[in-house]
Write a structure and sequence with these properties.
Order of helices and strands: HHHHHEEEEEHEEEEEH
Number of domains: 2
Number of helices: 7
Strand content: 15-25%
Distance between the termini: 64 Å
Structural class: alpha+beta
Shape: rod-shaped
Largest sheet: 5 strands, antiparallel
């Protein structure tokens, strides 16, 4: 049984997604510093100046952004060379969060641990601040690129539908050739059909395919095709031939009898004596009573 593989959405690994994420993170960080003032673990009963807090915060944010860029560059290079599933990306993000939080905690532990907190307590504060800073950019990036992806898919679908509406002929312009059991075997534009040639219990349908004559072998008899109202545009002119009247260039007489020349192809279709009168009447515009 085939395994269902969930691929990573492209907007998670594209370069422009990373830059959007970083730009959003910078804006969020500025707001975060102004309104929330992280690094509260620096404050003690002995006042620490706001300038020191901001400097420390800038160092932490810059370090976090640099580590994030390095992580995503590695991810970008890896996913270009190896196929990654969405599950792998989730593992990568979890590892990214843990590693960056630990490294930032090491920086904070030596630069801003005024309260002399334990490393585990410091790790908790740093991880919480880091999550707070990256949560909003992640949400915004995912929403923007998800909307862009949906817009692109809708545009592609619309283009496909428009192309199909131009290329697909109407039902009346199509000839549907069915086998003896009534199942559809072959279909093409009525104007593409040149002639049909009997071959024992089969029929060879000669038609135009991209401007060149081609052939399809149909498991059905000439008798059944001739008896069907679906093929009235095909004129029976011989025991072994039916021609598409749209592609008949001229009717002429040679030493062996009447011959039909087609607009395409070099083969001249003979008219047998049995069908002489009906063919002449047809091309003379005289309807049969």
């Amino acid at each position: 049984m085939a395994k269902n593989i969930v691929k990573i959405p492209k907007f998670f690994t594209e370069i422009k997604s990373m830059w959007l994420f970083l730009a959003t993170m910078i804006v969020v960080t500025v707001l975060f510093i102004v309104f929330y003032q992280p690094a509260s673990y620096m404050r003690t009963d002995e006042s620490v100046s706001n300038l020191n807090v901001y400097i420390f915060t800038v160092i932490m944010v810059s370090s976090g952004a640099a580590l994030f860029v390095i992580s995503r560059l590695f991810l970008y290079l890896i996913q270009r060379k190896h196929s990654m599933e969405f599950f792998h990306f989730i593992i990568w993000m979890a590892a990214e969060l843990i590693v960056i939080s630990v490294l930032l905690t090491v920086i904070a532990f030596f630069l801003g641990n005024v309260k002399r907190l334990a490393f585990s307590d410091m790790l908790w504060h740093v991880s919480l601040d880091f999550l707070s800073v990256i949560a909003v950019p992640y949400i915004i990036s995912v929403l923007i690129f998800n909307l862009d992806d949906r817009r692109q898919r809708l545009a592609n679908l619309q283009a496909t539908l428009e192309s199909a509406s131009l290329k697909l002929p109407s039902e009346g312009d199509n000839l549907l050739f069915k086998d003896r059991g009534g199942k559809l075997s072959f279909s093409t534009r009525r104007s593409n059909v040149l002639y049909i040639e009997a071959a024992d219990n089969y029929c060879n349908i000669h038609y135009l395919n991209e401007g060149k004559e081609d052939m399809f072998i149909l498991h059905n008899s000439m008798k059944q095709l001739n008896a069907s109202d679906e093929y009235k545009g095909l004129l029976r002119c011989h025991r072994s031939f039916m021609v598409n009247i749209e592609n008949v260039k001229l009717l002429r007489k040679d030493k062996d009898g009447l011959v039909l020349e087609l607009t395409e192809g070099s083969k001249a279709i003979p008219v047998s004596r049995t069908y002489n009168e009906s063919v002449v009447r047809f091309f003379s515009g005289i309807s049969e009573s």
